[in-house]
Amino acid sequence: MKKLFLIPVISLLCISVNAQKKAITETGEEVILFDDGTWEYENGEAPVETTIPTNRKVFEKNNTFSFLLKSKKLNVGVWLNPKKWSFQKATDNPVAEYQFQLRNSDLYGMIITEQVEVPLETLKAIAVENGKAAAPDLKIVKEEYRTVNGIKVLLLQMNGTTQGIKFSYYGYYYSNENGSVQFITYTSQRLIQTYFDECENLLNGLVETK
Predict the structure, then answer these.
(1) Going residue by residue through the chain (210 aa), what tens digit of pLDDT does each one get?
(2) How far apart are CA 177 and CA 2, in angstroms?
């Protein structure tokens, strides 16, 4: 696997849920995150619900993806095509379980699995906070709920700049009673549209396992 040029960026963005105590929402509000996955505004006011659209399309795994990579921590797995995607236990980010690379390309991915159930809204707040710590200009450019292989996920696409690199990462966030998942693909902003279908195909391989 060739050197991951965006790893310094993503290592800053993808921090363990357990390490979080405070976060800043995309509207600039400071919130406190608790170990049980709940959160509240730092000033004690009740949180105001934000409306995230729901995509009514049903998303399913690509029929050509025949290999199931199972998490060793949670009851989740990822269907993929090993002829297109290389994968290994994560070495570039200490909180990730697996890392991925589209062969002969500059598209990468990683999956972070933790045995802490976290509401999707809280996972979003964590993702934004981590992102802005590395890239102050980070913006959410797309967000929606989806049903993927029968499970509800939150899709986030975020763009930002750090160390002079304009990056984009596109991922699914998911949680159940056993834990939480951050499944992310990433590349430069210039290349994200080129690799969009590959991102979708990999992400849509996310499933619950027995």
Answers:
(1) 344 444 445 554 554 555 545 665 655 566 676 655 556 666 655 445 568 999 999 999 999 999 999 999 999 999 999 999 999 999 888 889 999 999 999 999 999 999 999 999 999 988 888 888 889 999 999 999 999 999 999 999 999 998 899 999 899 999 999 999 999 999 999 999 999 999 999 999 999 998
(2) 36
From the number of C-beta atoms within 10 Å of its C-beta (0-12, 13-18, 19+), residue 14 rates as buried
Question: Which residues contact residue 125 at a Cβ distance below 8 angstroms, ignoring those fewer than 6 apart?
Answer: 23, 24, 25, 31, 33, 39
Please give the distance of CA 126 from its chain centroid, rounded to a whole number.
Answer: 11
pTM (two decimals): 0.80
In sequence order, the β-bridge partners of residue 160 are 167
Torsion of CA 76, 180, 148, 99, to 10 degrees: -60
The topology under which CATH files domain 7-208 is Protein Transport Mog1p; Chain A (3.40.1000)
